[in-house]
User: Which sequence fits this backbone?
């Protein structure tokens, strides 16, 4: 039986892996999964519970951080503060279903390209 605090923690963290969340609240992962199923708690993105989501440190330069989209495409690279802002905006877009909305048919800046 889950306590009120455990239930609220599961509700507040729908994107966290069930196994990690179960270890944190000292419960079985099946308990977390079934609670999510019964209460129709769905996740729009997934996180293992370690590190910062979508962020990786370049192996040859410990000060350069890369942010990746879900597809594995590089979104940006640069300083830690810039990377955290991009990750925050990326998660915000995912949670508001921005990537699922229809695109503009004839955008004004149609041939605009980023990068080299």
Assistant:
């Amino acid at each position: 039986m889950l306590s009120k605090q455990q239930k609220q923690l599961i509700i507040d963290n729908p994107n966290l892996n069930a196994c990690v969340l179960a270890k944190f609240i000292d419960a079985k992962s099946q308990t977390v999964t079934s609670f999510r199923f019964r209460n129709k708690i769905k996740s729009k993105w997934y996180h293992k519970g370690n590190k910062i989501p979508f962020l990786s440190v370049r192996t040859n330069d410990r000060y350069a951080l890369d942010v990746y989209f879900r597809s594995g495409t590089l979104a940006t690279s640069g300083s830690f503060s810039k990377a955290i802002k991009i990750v925050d905006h990326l998660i915000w877009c995912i949670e508001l279903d921005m990537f699922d909305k229809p695109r503009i048919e004839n955008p004004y800046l149609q041939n605009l390209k980023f990068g080299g």
About this structure: The beta strands are 55-57, 65-68, 74-78.
